[in-house]
Design a protein that fits this description.
By secondary structure, this protein is an alpha/beta fold. It is about 50% helix and about 15% strand. Strands 6-5-4-7-8 form a 5-stranded mixed β-sheet. It has a 3-stranded antiparallel β-sheet with strand order 2-1-3. Strand 4, helix 10 and strand 5 form a beta-alpha-beta unit. Helix 2 packs across helix 3 and helix 3 runs antiparallel to helix 6.
Length: about 375
C-alpha cells in the first residue's frame, strides 16, 4: 500500500501542477472556456467573473498539487482534492453525456481532450485520490513545518505571479494554431496538403480495414464505411473559420495574408470591449504603414454600423474586415486589440495592446531582415 500511495501521490501532485501551469500560461483562453460552461448551465451572471476565476483555479490547482507532493496540511489537502475531483468528474460527465462543451480545456491547447477522454481522466484521478485517502498514514511531510510553509508560500506566490504576467502580456509558451512561425496561407483548410484515408468493409468477410488508396476492384469487393484526412505535415494545425469579409460579404483573407513582405492585422474581436486608450498609437502606426505602402487592416466580429461608429469615435482611417465567428480572433491573439505581424504569410510577431509597439522600432527590427 505504501508504494501504491507514493505512486498516486507523485502522479496526482505532478498532474495538478502541470494542469494548473498550462492554464496559467493562457488564463484568458481558459476564461473563454469557463464562459462556455457558464452559458451551458445558464449562469450568465458568472461570465464577468470568468477571468478572476480562471486565474484563481490555476493558482488553486498548482497549490494543491504542490501540497500533495510536499505532504503538507494533509487533512485539508485531501479534503480539497476530493471536493475538486467530485466537482470536475460531474462536470466532465455532464459535458460528455449531453455533448455540451466539445473540449474541456483541462490542459488548454497543449493537449486537447474530448469530453469523454476528460471524464475518463477524472475517473482515474478520483481513484488515485481515493488511494491517497486510504493510504494517508503512509504520507509523511517532506520537510519540517517552517521550511514547508516557506516552500509553499514561495511556490504559491510564483503561481500567482505567472498567470498575471501571461494575462498582461501573452502566453509564454504558445500552443495556439496562430502561433509565431505559422504560415496562415498553408494552414488554411483549403490549402493544407492532406492525405486521404478510407475505411472499407469487405463484402465477403465483413472485416473493415483502413487504406490510404483504393484497392483493386474495391467497388465490387468492398463498401465504403468512412473516410478521413490528415495533414501531410503533422506540424500544421489547420485554422478553422478564419475569414476577412468586406462590407459586401466577400472574403479577402487570401489576398491580405499573402501580401508580399510585411503586413499587419489589428485584431479587435469586439469593438465594444476594445481598449480605447491605445487607439492613438494604433492610428499613428497605421498612418506610417500607409506612408510606407505597408498593408495594415483591422479584423473584428462587430457589425458594420458599430464599425462605422467606432472609426468616427477613434478617428481610424484604416480598413476594417469582419469575421462571422469570434473564435478564430480570440485564438489569434489574447488581446483586444492585439497586433499581428505577417511576413510573406508567416506570423512573425505579435503584441498585446499593453505593449503596443513603435512603428520605427518594428521597422528597424523586422523590415530589413530577409
Amino acid at each position: 500500500m505504501k508504494i501504491l500511495t507514493t505512486i498516486a501521490r507523485i502522479f496526482v501532485g505532478a498532474l495538478f501542477i502541470f494542469s494548473g501551469f498550462i492554464k496559467a500560461n493562457d488564463p484568458l483562453g481558459f476564461s473563454y472556456k469557463l464562459q462556455e460552461y457558464f452559458e451551458v448551465f445558464n449562469m450568465n451572471w458568472m461570465i464577468p467573473l470568468s477571468l478572476f476565476l480562471a486565474i484563481f483555479i490555476c493558482i488553486f490547482e498548482i497549490a494543491v498539487g504542490f501540497s500533495v507532493l510536499l505532504g503538507s496540511r494533509l487533512k485539508l489537502t485531501l479534503w480539497l482534492l476530493s471536493l475538486m475531483m467530485i466537482f470536475f468528474t460531474f462536470l466532465t460527465f455532464y459535458s460528455a453525456y449531453y455533448n455540451k462543451v466539445t473540449s474541456c480545456g483541462c490542459f488548454g491547447d497543449a493537449i486537447p481532450l474530448t469530453p469523454w477522454q476528460s471524464f475518463y481522466k477524472d475517473i482515474i484521478l478520483s481513484v488515485l485520490t481515493l488511494v491517497l485517502i486510504l493510504g494517508r498514514s503512509n504520507i509523511n511531510p517532506l520537510f519540517g513545518q517552517r521550511l514547508e510553509n516557506a516552500a509553499l508560500g514561495i511556490f504559491t506566490l510564483a503561481a500567482t505571479a505567472f498567470p498575471i504576467y501571461t494575462y498582461t502580456h501573452l502566453p509564454v509558451i504558445d500552443f495556439r494554431p496562430y502561433k509565431i512561425g505559422t504560415n496562415l496561407y498553408n494552414a488554411s483548410p483549403e490549402h493544407v496538403k492532406s492525405k486521404f484515408f478510407y475505411t472499407l468493409k469487405n463484402k465477403k468477410t465483413g472485416k473493415s480495414e483502413e487504406f490510404d488508396h483504393f484497392p483493386p476492384n474495391w467497388d465490387t469487393e468492398w463498401e465504403m464505411v468512412s473516410n478521413r484526412t490528415e495533414p501531410i505535415d503533422k506540424k500544421i494545425k489547420p485554422i478553422e473559420h478564419f475569414e476577412m469579409q468586406d462590407a459586401n460579404g466577400e472574403d479577402h483573407r487570401d489576398d491580405l495574408i499573402t501580401s508580399p513582405g510585411c503586413s499587419f492585422i489589428l485584431v479587435e474581436y469586439d469593438l465594444d470591449k476594445s481598449d480605447r486608450a491605445v487607439q492613438g498609437k494604433v492610428n499613428d502606426f497605421a498612418e506610417l504603414c500607409k506612408k510606407d505602402m505597408v498593408s495594415f487592416s483591422a479584423l473584428t466580429t462587430s457589425e458594420l454600423d458599430k464599425i462605422m461608429l467606432f472609426k468616427q469615435e477613434v478617428n481610424a482611417t484604416y480598413n476594417f474586415y469582419r469575421s462571422p465567428d469570434d473564435v478564430p480572433l480570440k485564438a489569434m491573439i489574447r488581446s483586444n486589440p492585439g497586433l499581428v505581424m505577417l511576413k510573406d504569410s508567416v506570423v512573425t510577431a505579435m503584441w498585446p495592446y499593453r505593449n503596443f509597439p513603435s512603428y520605427n522600432d518594428v521597422k528597424a527590427k523586422y523590415f530589413s531582415k530577409k
